[in-house]
Amino acid sequence: MNAFTVASPKQRVARSSWRRKVFSFFWGAPLLIWQGAFFFAPLIFLIVLTFWSVRSFRVQPDATLKNWIKILTTEYVWSAYLRSVVLSACCSLITTAAAFPFAYFVAFRLSMRARLFATCLLIVPFFTSYLVRVYTWRTMLGQHGAVNNLLAWIGLPAQTMTDNFFGVLVGFVTLTLPLVCLLHVLSLSYVDKRLVEAAHNLGAPPFTTVLRVIIPSARTGLILGVAFAFVLSFGDFVSPDLLGGRNPPLVSLLIIDQVKGGSNWPSAAVIAMIMVITLVIVVLGASRLAYSGRK
Amino acid sequence: MSRPRSAGFGFGAVLVAIYAFIYAPIVISFIFSFSAERFPTIPLGGVSLQWYGFVWSDPDVHAAFWRSVNVAALAAPIAVFIGFGAAYTDYRSKFFGKALYLTLGLLPPLVPVLILGVAMLFFFARVGLFGGLYSIVISHVVLCTPFAFTVVRLRLTQVNPALEQAAWNLGAGPWRTFASVIVPLCLPAIVAALLVTAAISFDEFAVAWFVSGMNETLPVRVLNFVQGQASPRINAIGSLTFTISMLLVMSALILLFFRTPQGSAPIDAARDKP
Amino acid sequence: MSEPLIKIRQVSKSFGEFLAVDSIDLDIEEGAFVAIMGPSGCGKTTTLRMIAGLEIPDRGSIHYRGSDVTFAAPWDRRMPLVWQNLALFPFLNVMENVAFGLRMANVPKIERRERAHQWLDRLGLAEFSRRSVMDLSGGQQQRVALARALVTEPRVLLLDEPLSALDSHLVVRMQAELINLQRQLGITFVYVTHSQSEAFAMADRVVIMDRGRIQQIGAPREIFRLPTNRFVAEFVGANNIISGRVAELRGERAVVETELGMLCATSRSPLALQAEVDIIVGADLIAVGPDGVFAEDGKQIVSGRVVGEQFLGSSVTLHVDVGMQLPMKVQLPLHKFDQLGVGRGAAVSLSWEPSAALVLPATKQ
Fold it and tell me: B163: which chain C residues are within 8 Å (Cβ-Cβ)?
């Protein structure tokens, strides 16, 4: 038989909960430690690095605004930035415009099983290599590629589809379309079907129903979709490289050039921070839009 | 409710167009990998397995492949250990700042890989962790842990909390309860999490490209190929890695969804057999 | 008198704003079958969990065999619990479930299996020892849960509404089995239930709780016949409650002014004149007959009209409107009811002895 030793109540609480605390700590702490050391520290360091300087090809700790000033006043940085913003915005619009009718059909007009199958088909691309897909597009869209061959066969002139904005957009859409479609399908399948039926019941034709009932209900999904597409494409460096030609550059390419090409890491850090700030603004703005007006 | 036929057609067309766009590069890549020509096009000139042959015998590809396997083999268990611990902590404890803890720990997938890659590159270089296989392992654990967390956490929501308490009541301290009750209940989820994180690590090219230095993993090799010499080798590697990833993920799905879940909702004691 | 096995002193427990248990004192003797009973939310399960160590009291102390165990971890106490939803381990088979507690006590494998097998045998589950627990019926699972708790040979067994999810014909059987087990083993059972019939059928002592407080502790019969407050009177059995004011006191007897007139009743605690009281009359202690049949010879007589009847099997409960807000309930055996031959709307007389009427001080609701 076990013996309960006589200890004061305080000692007893202390002892039993100490053992439990160690136990909880053991399981809970690793996440904090690992992400703190290898996720946060690098990000914090990135910020810190923007204030350091480069002397004789070596990066030195410092506290200067030199890097920021230089980057913010450089013309080609801003033009690259603008290009990136415009292209990512286009990507968001295109994917949303395509994904919404797609999701509408899948969510409202397909049977349960068909919907499941359609959703699975959307998930498979995540496990293919994005690199290989973009590479394949390059071969297909080239001067003598499959698409131009098809156009010639129909009798249309050959088009330049790579090394330009069109190519980059194709790449961006390849990257983001499955995700945005998935998002919209999920978001629309949560729309209360009874609202739709009620609207039809009251005589609203299908298109009006869409405008007045469905879009407002699925607003969150729509806004999130736009935000996701923007964020993903803004940070992508594969499509601008392979399908966009490297000129004129986009922000992501600028960063890579600075990093892989030279040792001016502080400058690269500044451009990276500009990217981060832009994305944070986009996400915060989207969250507010998506969740405002909710009871 | 009558729906105009044309609307159905219109929708159908959108559906087909989208799937066509998404799957075109995938399917064509697969086809091109069997091309007999150096610069494949549609229609295919001739069929050959030469590119698979080249890939198979390329020592760089071999080395890169094994590096990818090693990285995944190390990163997956670590990520699952950390993710499992976090999921269990979320399941059992309430503490001050828990929402913050979770947000911070699970943020990585939301940060663009370019930023992560660059930040890790700078940081690792500064602290001397750059350029080894371990650098890639570390960064992959950062990326994969949130996924491991999600898989395990989902499973834990199905676990009856009384089971843990029953074990305590029968004399099992916190560690023994963990080993004798929680782990057996979560075993399918743990294995699934291992498979999913292995798949993610195996496919990851962006961060690996930044922090690996000369130690290329397979996706990084592909990136270098793609930026250098174009050839259907790339399509061949793409098909191979796709197959491996799909196998890993399918196994994970089967484990998660097709085994009879045990330890779910309280055992229903009201049955009509005596 | 030896020390009680479990001593609960001034124990309170809150969950946020909600006070689940409010300063309770309870002694549990060794070898007793104690039932803790009350409506949902009365604190009975919380109390049991505090005994088991699954909750820690905010105030007060719990002593077990003389030692203070208020803060002892649940795995250090040896008070196995039979759970309401059973909590059997689905990844272990029947034998492994039963042997679990022994495994945690580091009993060697062979001995574990032997002891587990003995218990499975004793409860008629030997043939299922290798089966998965999910394959068993409700009653069988219940017995596995019991075996799992008892195999460790504890001094105390805690049970949290273990029969509440079973079909009614099983419940009666399991009750008998539990009573037998307790008698044979001589261990202490602490049994939480919301069912009066269960508590009364099985326990030596019943503890009635309401809203975190103990209302009454006593043998089932005592509680049934001599409730100490209005709540217990209403909760237990079919009692009629008539409110009034004390008009006269004559030793143990009191005359109370009520809306039915002056009624005579027995009091077991001191009362003051003009005090507000409730008179409790057990439904089975009232005689009923056609109107005007009873002679006034010291009994209390009231007239009324039958407004309802409830068939309970071997007895019938009549609801009689006597002019109060609620009808009076009268319980009589089926054959007497048949003899009476009264139906709905019939005018009847009710009569009872003053000794059958209990006066209690009115409690503020």
Answer: 87, 89
Fold classified for C239-361: OB fold (Dihydrolipoamide Acetyltransferase, E2P) (2.40.50)
CB C280 within 8 A of CB C358: yes
Nearest CA to C339 out of C316, C308, C305, C306 is that of C316
Cβ(A106)–Cβ(A191) below 8 Å: no
For residue A16, the chain C residue with the least C-alpha distance is C73
Each residue's pLDDT tens digit, C287-322 = 888 877 776 666 778 888 888 888 888 889 989 888
Please answer yes or no on whether A133 and B235 come within 8 Å at the CB atom: no
ipTM: 0.84
CB proximity B270 to C under 8 Å: yes
Structure tokens at A247: 């000129």
Instruction: Give contacts of B171 with chain C, Cβ < 8 Å.
Output: 75, 78, 101, 104-105, 152
Q: What's the pLDDT band for A276 if we cut at 50, 70, 90?
A: very high
- Nearest CB to C76 within list A2, A9, A13: A2
What does the block give as tokens for A44?
Answer: 């914090």
**Predicted TM-score (pTM) of this structure:** 0.82
Residue B269 pLDDT more than 50?
no
C83 inside 8 A of chain B by CB: yes
- Are C78 and B171 an interchain contact pair (Cβ–Cβ within 8 Å)? yes
- Which of C85, C86, C104 lies nearest to residue B170, judging by beta carbons? C104
Indicate the fold that domain C6-225 takes in CATH: Rossmann fold (3.40.50)
C-alpha–C-alpha distance, residues C349 and B11, integer Å:
81
CATH of the domain spanning B51-258:
1.10.3720.10
- B with C: how many residue pairs have Cβ under 8 Å apart? 101
| C167 contacts: CB under 8 Å, gap ≥ 6 | B270, B271, B272, C138
Which among A4, A13, A19 has the least Cβ separation from residue C69?
A4
Per CATH, the number for A70-291 is 1.10.3720.10
User: What ranges make up the beta strands (E) of C58-155?
Assistant: 59-64, 67-68, 81-82
- CB contact under 8 Å between A2 and C78, yes or no, is yes
**Of B29, C185, B63, B86, nearest in space to A30 by CA:** B86
SS3 call for C34: strand
Using one digit for the tens of pLDDT, what is the confidence trace for C98-123?
999 999 999 999 999 999 999 999 88
